[in-house]
Amino acid sequence: MHITFVKKIKADGSPCRKCVEVEQRLRESGQLGLIDTVTIADERDPESVGMRLAARHGIDVAPYFIVRDDDGAERIYTIYFQFAKEVLNRRLSEQDEARELMSRDPSLDLL
Q1: So where are the chain's domains?
Q2: Does residue 3 contact residue 38 with C-beta atoms inside 8 Å?
Q3: 3-class secondary structure for the chain?
Q4: φ, ψ for residue 69, nearest 5 deg
Q5: Can you give the pTM of this predicted structure?
Q6: Which CATH architecture has domain 2-104?
Q7: pLDDT per position as a tens digit, 61-106
Q8: pLDDT digits (tens, 9 = 90+) for 5-61
Q9: Are β-strands 64-68 and 37-42 bridged in parallel, bridged antiparallel, or unpaired?
Q10: Is the peptide bond before 63 cis (omega within 30 degrees of 0)?
């Protein structure tokens, strides 16, 4: 699974208020480390990565999350709490399971 967090810079150059709040929540909960990529949708630059992703997926709000599963399927989340419940909790469980396996067999190592 690969998680991309897209936050917005508004046309006046200021950060999106909601994006700042969500990033703070992620940071305070220790979940920011579960995000693989953070990118910017800059309203001043329609070619910014986040703006191109938004256009490709038909997204007109920020922040948003793109979750790409191992089979290549993508899911879009525009609601932080739904994303946290459905994705971050699952990812935390996967990491806990990997740590458990690692602790049982010291010959194993993470890539």
Answers
A1: 2-104
A2: no
A3: CEEEEEEEECCCCCECHHHHHHHHHHHHHCCHHHCCEEEEEECCCCCCHHHHHHHHHCCCCCCEEEEECCCCCEEEECCHHHHHHHHHHHHHHHHHHHHHHHHHCCCCCCC
A4: -75, 170
A5: 0.78
A6: 3-Layer(aba) Sandwich (3.40)
A7: 999 999 999 899 999 999 888 898 889 886 655 555 455 555 555 5
A8: 999 999 999 999 999 999 998 998 888 999 999 999 999 999 999 999 999 999 999
A9: unpaired
A10: yes
Q: In the numeric block, which tokens belong to residue 85?
A: 């419940």
Encoded tokens for 51: 């703006």
| Nearest Cα residue to 48 out of 40, 56, 36 | 40
Number of residues assigned to the chain: 111
31 within 8 A of 64, measured Cβ to Cβ: no
Q: What Rg, from alpha-carbon coordinates, does the chain have? A: 16
* Amino acid (one-letter) located at 32: L
